[in-house]
Each structure stands twice: as structure tokens, then as C-alpha cells.
């Protein structure tokens, strides 16, 4: 089928208005969120239903044209941008944004892939329930993308990552088959759990079109505190202590290094340092309870008193109003945009086993500074999950050419990845692999696992039409 | 390779003592827990390490001999018994029963596949933590089997099933490759999550040899109550009410039908009816908190007062001592052995969406009694998970021949399965498919899903050596 014939067929499936080919209208969908990659596409196609997605996939398969599914295009590693030589379309699910059902009795919600994460949170809240996935881009990212990337965020510690929140999944396979697994079951051992294949596969095995998700009792009382501590080992001691007081009520346990704090205070509008003096590290602890009358504020004060007595913190503040709570969270939340103001950054999304974080932090800082003494090594992350983001910042003018910067960036990747792997970690904890991390994946992943991954890809997408060029490097000739 | 040569090679790998071939010594491992199937095996082989498992698998692959992995042999659907014509060995993991590590800081435990579930619970408890998986056979089942069957039980409502408790998995593949995925990471998006393939695959894709599991804060205060209610719809109203009071503190929410209660009181030694009068249904609610001082007993009394006022319960008791709590649980716990005393039983492990349970119960009872007016339709299960076990009981002498019983049993399966599927359910919620349920799976499973399952099986086990005859019926000739 010629590309013109394909476009005509796509128009017959989704309507002329939803096959977008004019350059000004497609531009926003052809560049990734970080602005690192710009690709080409025959069209940006916007189906309105699962049947239309299936039709689009069948037409593309017949024409040998690849499909790049795209949610809110907020991903951080280029998984939703067309790359490489293969002609492709970008598939946007925006029009599939219905919340199909909320069941308070079942604590479930059934949503289409194009639903904005914040809209799902709001729909759950209207029924007195909680959809716990929460991350910086929640106002614009789509649940289909969250599922495809197995999104993480600030509530994984308590509720698990996206994978653990999925009960049922509807997926369109590479041949257009609709795999109808939209079940609302809490227990189902009738054969292999196929939905697991598509969670975190970044669109390389099929297209998520709808999902049934778990909900939880809403949080009706909470308390938030920020603490100043001397080091990461103390953070782990504190976490163990907090577990004793708060048990499963701990919702988030985040860490901010001093140079990251300095950066935020300098570049993020409206942030204020809540302490008189700086400290090497800052911890953010949020606890919550479904009971409106849980005495969390009193518990938090008692807890802070104890750890202060024990010499674990030098100072601490409790958010005693919604405004204060928001001000504390603002010091932690995503600032990808602001990095560009500060200089050239190299961002990482490493995880290591929780107890290995002190070693990780110490070794990374030493190794990066040994290689690049002028680097500003900033750290921030989800210490309850073993997921510390390392952001290495250089002045704008530090590298003469883009190539020099890329070479240094690759170099820093190797330094950090080797330490992570040595500690039993992962080079990508929550962002996924996408296009950006595939070389690093190929270098660090166990070859047996990589081989099995390729086998799965080959089985589900034998013609390589599902988001090609992502996760895997092109195969070596056999 | 001849079978004799294979046995010699197996002896060279694991030692003569651990290649068991004498009939009296193998008998216990060749019949399933329910005593429905007895198979044959060249030997029962007991490796002591992952390397030995890998060696055994390679030797068997070279000889074309199948491998039936077996944990505690407590499964309820014949998944661990050799069936069919293919020569096979039974692989027991008993000697691989080391708890390799417990980390309180990370809330993880790393165990070998042959560890008894109760031993893992005890090891976690020694460090003040909880491994929440809990089921009737916990004193003898092994964690490898729990993982291979994605075990459920009485704490799924709060902590998820086995799948959600696995952080890392070590698996020996069909060609003997050791897939070393024993990571302790809370977040890892470095490619497809391969471990998910092996959880719940019932040994048909590979052999689980070790796992890293999630732990939770220990429960330090709890309260247990049993209530008498009029119907299943009231149970759901009560559940919603309990959520408001207890939130995430609800650990178990179980239901017992009156005829099942009668059966337990008659046949299970030491059980006592805690109420003056019988009722149509009984609910068991357990709540727990990691704080030792949580006022759960007072909350439970207040809760029972409210629902009594609202006319939702006719009577209720609180377990006010450990002995009383155990007496309440005894009315609920597994009684597979006692069924044989009472008559001939047909047991089911259906799940439906939580809100569909009233319809499920009503329709099943009506349909089974319409076909078999003399049946005693007993129901018991995890109503918080939508998982009600239907046990259909007949007097011993009801069927003249084993064939007549089997025909009636198949008939009842179809009646119940059709209702379950109509309500969006699953024919096997937590027991798995094994040998017993494979015909029912083939009849009820979406053909596209079944095809994809076969594709995965073919990819990972092209020669069909991993637990053949399980999950799938023999393939139709193409």
C-alpha cells in the first residue's frame, strides 16, 4: 500500500480531521518533552475508540508503516517520539478520554488510555476514594503512557508503582487484535497474566487502550514534615524509626541534597528556605490516614521530638497549613524546565537496594568529581524506594560543542551505571528505557534477560511495527 | 540418552541419595494432595543448589525427559503431579530451604524456593516484620510453589496476592540457563519485567529457585469479629461501612454460608457455634494495625454497634482473647480433608467482580439446585476479593459409579463456569489451572488470550519439557 493510500484509509477510519499532516499542527507531537529529539511522521492519527485503534493498526500493518503511541508526551527518555528510518505514524489517544466507570463498592475505576492522570485522581476523589499514582506531570500525562512506562512517582512506597495498580487491561496487538482483558477481578489465576507483558513495555508490544485500576480509601488526615539531616545513612535510620511510629501510614519519604536545594531556591519561583541554616541533606516525610480523626499531627510532633533528642536531625518543620504543606512539597517537585536556566544537565534515574543508598551516593559523588572536578552533583529522590535521581550540572559554556557535551554525558553515564550495577541496581528506576537509555541498557543488562526480551518482542511484533527503535538497539546481524 | 544414562548423570549432579527411584520412597510425590491423580516418574530428584537444578534441567533436556517441579505438594488442581505419557522426573526443592537474607532496613527477605511458607513468616516476625501471605497449607507448602501458583489466601485484600509480594526472582529456564533476577529493587524499569512471566505459570515456563520478597510492618494490635447477616448484598454494604471506620486496617473479610457452617460444626473437631441461633450467612472481619496502642477493640465495638443499629447484622461476637480469635478463625479455615467424611464433593475456586457476588451466589444456588435438587450447595470465601468457593456436596452413595460422579461434576462445572464468565469472572481465582482445570480453561478462556499463552509457552519451552500436560490441553493438530 502506498503512503497516500494508507492516509486515505486512515481518514476513512478516524475521519479527516483526525489524520493530521500539516507541519504546524504535528510539530508538538514530533519532539520529545525534553526537546532532545525531533522525528518525522506520515501523520498524527487520533482514533476515538478501541475499534478505530484496531483499524489503524491493521491499516499500518498492511502498509508496513510503524506506529509510535503517544500519551501526554511528558516522558523523559524519548519513548513517544518517532526515531529512525522507518516510516511511521504517531498515534494519539487524546479522544479516548472517557472514565467508563467508577465502583465505590469494588474500589475500581475503568478508564480509557487518553485520560489525564489528574482527571482520574479527581474522579476517584469524587467517590471518596484515592487513585494513588502521583507524579510531577500528573496534570498532562495520560494513563496509557503511565501504564506503558510503569510510572512511579511519590507514592510508590505505600501503594506500589503503576503495575501494582492495574487490575485489567485492554490492548491492541501488532496485528490489530483487541486483547480484551478489561476484568475487574482481584484474583485471577486462569493462565498466564498477559497484562503484565504490556505494563512497562513502552508501546513496543502493543497499544494500551483502556484499563481497570485499583482504588484505595481516601486519605482524610495527614501530616507533612521536612527535616535537616547530616547524611543518607541517617535517612535510613530515620525511616526505620518512622516505620515504628507510623507503620503503613507513611505515604512518601523523599530526600533532597543541599546542592539541589540551592538550585531550587535559586531557580524555582516562589520557593522559600524553611530553615535558618542550610544542611547537607533534607528529608520530606508525608504520613496519611483514611480516618479523619487520626492524631497524625501530634504523632509527628512526638516523632520529631524523639529524633531530635537522638541527634538524628538538626532542625525540622511541620506543615501546619495547606499552604505550608504545598510550600514544602514545592521544594521537592519536578523542575525539569528550570534545569535549562541553570546550565547543561545530565539527568539520571537510578535505583539501588534501599540499604545501598549511602554507598551509592558517596561513590557517585566521588567518582563524578574525580572525573569532572567542576561538576555540580545534585541529588534528589525517593529514598523510600531506593531511587535517587542524580543530576550533574555544568555551566552553559562548559562544553565547546554539542559533541563534547554528549561525550562527557556518555562518560558520566558509564560512571554512574557501573556503580549502580555493582550495587545490584537499575539504570532506570521509573522513567523507562525509551530511546535515550537503550545504549545504556544494552551495556548493563544481563544478556540472558536481553535475549528473552528480544524473544518476547519478536513473538508479539514480528514485523517490528510497534514503536521501533525503542528499548532495543538494532539487532546485530545474525 | 537412555533413561539409565540420565539417572547416572543425575546421580553425578545431586548425589545418589537424592535421586530417589524406589517405589515406597517416591509414592508420596506421585499423588496429588487431593488424591485424584497418581503418576509415574523415572525418579524424584532433589538438588541442593541452583547450579544443581540447572544441571538437572540440562541433563533432562538432553535426554528429552520432562520435569515436574513440586513444592510442598499441597496444590488443589494436580499441577505438581506427573501426568500423561511423557517420561518425566519430579523435581523437589526441599533441600533448597535456606533463608538467604532478611533486611529490616529494606523490608525484604531473600529465600530459596524450598522454604516452607510458615518458616518465612517466622523469619520475618523475628525481625519485627510481616510476610503477609497466609493460607491453609502454610505449615507445609513451599514458597516456590506459592510463586508458581500465584498463591492467594486470606490477606490478599490488604497486601495483594503472591505476585505483588515478589521483588526479584531467580529462575532456571528450559535449557538450563539460570535467569538471575534476584534483585532487591522497589523500582526497576530497565526493560520488560521478566519475572512476571514465571509467577503463576505453574512451572510450565521454568523453575523458580529463589526469590526476594517484600516485607511489611508487623501487625501489633488487632481485632476479630464474626457477624450474622441475612445475605451477600448486606456483606458488601457492611464492607463499605467497615472501610469508613477502618480504612486500610482491614486485613481479612471472609464469608461463610450457613450450610458450610453446619458442615464445619459437624465434621471439624473442636469447633463451636458462637451464636445462639443460626443465620443465613456469617462474616469474619479482621482488622490490624502496626501500632501496638491502636484502639481497634473499641473501634470494633463501636462499628458493631452502628451496624446493629442499622439492622445489618442480627448478632455478632468479638474475639476477646487469643483463644477466642483462634476459635473464630477455625470456623473459616481449610477443611479439605473433612470433605471426604461428609460425602462426595465438587469444589470450585471462582472469582467475580466484588459487586457481582450477590448475583453470583443467587444464580449458582438456583442453577445447581435446578439440575441437582438433592445437592448441598456450600459457600465460603474471600468476599473482599470476589472469591467465593462453591463446594457442592452429595451423599457418598449418590452416584453409582465414578464415571457417573465425574459426569455430574463436569455438568456442575459448566453451570458454575457459565455464570462466572457471564459476570466477568474467572474459573480459577487462586488455585491455578494445573491438570484439573485445563478443560474448563480451554472452554472459557478468550481464544486470543489462549493463543498468546501458547506463544509464550512455545517460546520459553519449545520442546515441551517443563511440566507438560498442565494448563494447556494437548494442541490440536495444525
UniProtKB/TrEMBL annotation, chains A, B:
Keyword hit for Flavoprotein: yes
Ranges for domain FAD-binding PCMH-type: 37-218
PROSITE patterns per record: FAD_PCMH
Protein name: FAD-binding PCMH-type domain-containing protein
Family: Belongs to the FAD-binding oxidoreductase/transferase type 4 family.
GO biological process: respiratory electron transport chain
Keyword Flavoprotein: yes
Cofactor: FAD
Molecular function per GO: catalytic activity; FAD binding
InterPro entries: FAD-bd_oxidored_4_C (IPR004113), FAD-bd_PCMH (IPR016166), FAD-bd_PCMH-like_sf (IPR036318), FAD-bd_PCMH_sub1 (IPR016167), FAD-bd_PCMH_sub2 (IPR016169), FAD-linked_Oxase-like_C (IPR016164), FAD-oxidored/transferase_4 (IPR051264), Oxid_FAD_bind_N (IPR006094)
Annotated organism of origin: Azospirillum palustre
Keywords on record: FAD, Flavoprotein
PANTHER family reported for this sequence: BLL6224 PROTEIN, D-2-HYDROXYGLUTARATE DEHYDROGENASE, MITOCHONDRIAL
Amino acid at each position: 500500500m502506498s503512503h497516500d493510500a494508507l492516509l486515505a484509509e486512515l481518514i476513512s477510519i478516524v475521519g479527516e480531521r483526525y489524520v493530521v499532516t500539516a507541519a504546524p499542527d504535528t510539530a508538538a507531537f514530533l519532539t520529545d518533552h525534553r526537546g532532545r529529539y525531533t522525528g518525522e511522521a506520515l501523520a498524527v492519527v487520533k482514533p476515538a475508540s478501541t475499534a478505530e485503534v484496531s483499524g489503524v493498526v491493521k491499516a499500518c500493518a498492511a502498509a508496513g508503516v510503524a506506529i509510535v503511541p503517544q500519551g501526554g508526551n511528558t516522558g523523559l527518555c524519548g519513548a513517544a517520539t518517532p526515531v529512525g528510518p522507518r516510516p511511521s505514524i504517531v498515534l494519539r489517544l487524546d479522544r479516548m478520554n472517557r472514565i467508563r466507570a467508577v465502583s465505590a463498592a469494588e474500589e475500581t475505576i475503568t478508564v480509557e488510555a487518553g485520560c489525564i492522570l489528574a482527571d482520574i485522581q479527581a474522579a476517584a476523589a469524587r467517590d471518596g476514594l484515592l487513585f494513588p499514582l502521583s507524579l510531577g506531570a500528573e496534570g498532562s500525562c495520560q494513563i496509557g503512557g503511565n501504564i506503558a512506562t510503569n510510572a512511579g512517582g511519590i507514592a510508590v512506597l505505600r501503594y506500589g508503582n503503576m503495575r501494582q495498580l492495574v487490575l485489567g487491561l485492554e490492548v491492541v496487538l501488532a496485528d490489530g487484535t483487541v486483547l480484551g482483558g478489561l476484568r475487574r477481578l482481584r484474583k485471577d489465576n486462569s493462565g498466564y497474566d498477559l497484562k503484565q507483558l504490556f505494563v512497562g513495555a513502552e508501546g513496543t508490544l502493543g497499544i494500551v487502550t483502556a484499563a481497570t485500576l485499583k482504588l484505595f480509601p481516601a486519605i482524610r488526615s495527614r501530616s507533612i514534615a521536612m527535616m535537616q539531616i547530616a547524611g543518607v545513612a541517617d535517612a535510613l535510620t530515620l525511616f526505620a524509626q518512622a516505620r515504628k511510629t507510623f507503620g503503613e501510614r507513611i505515604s512518601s519519604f523523599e530526600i533532597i541534597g543541599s546542592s539541589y536545594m540551592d538550585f531550587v531556591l535559586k531557580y524555582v519561583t516562589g520557593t522559600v528556605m524553611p530553615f535558618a541554616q542550610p544542611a547537607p541533606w533534607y528529608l520530606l516525610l508525608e504520613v496519611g490516614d483514611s480516618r479523619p480523626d487520626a492524631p497524625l499531627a501530634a504523632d509527628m510532633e512526638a516523632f520529631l521530638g524523639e529524633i531530635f533528642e537522638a541527634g538524628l536531625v538538626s532542625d525540622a518543620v511541620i506543615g501546619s497549613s495547606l499552604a505550608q504543606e504545598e510550600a514544602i512539597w514545592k521544594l521537592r517537585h519536578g523542575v525539569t524546565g528550570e534545569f535549562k536556566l541553570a546550565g547543561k544537565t545530565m539527568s539520571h534515574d537510578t535505583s539501588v537496594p534501599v540499604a545501598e543508598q549511602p554507598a551509592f551516593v558517596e561513590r557517585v559523588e566521588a567518582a563524578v568529581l574525580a572525573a569532572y572536578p567542576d561538576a555540580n552533583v545534585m541529588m534528589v529522590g525517593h529514598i523510600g524506594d531506593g531511587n535517587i535521581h542524580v543530576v550533574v550540572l555544568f555551566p552553559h559554556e562548559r562544553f565547546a560543542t554539542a559533541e563534547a557535551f554528549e561525550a562527557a554525558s556518555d562518560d558520566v553515564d558509564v560512571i554512574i551505571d557501573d556503580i549502580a550495577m555493582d550495587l545490584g541496581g537499575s539504570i532506570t528506576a521509573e522513567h523507562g528505557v525509551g530511546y535515550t537509555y537503550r545504549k545504556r541498557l544494552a551495556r548493563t543488562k544481563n544478556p540472558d534477560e536481553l535475549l528473552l526480551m528480544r524473544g518476547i518482542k519478536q513473538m508479539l511484533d514480528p514485523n517490528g511495527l510497534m514503536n521501533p527503535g525503542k528499548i532495543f538497539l538494532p539487532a546485530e546481524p545474525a
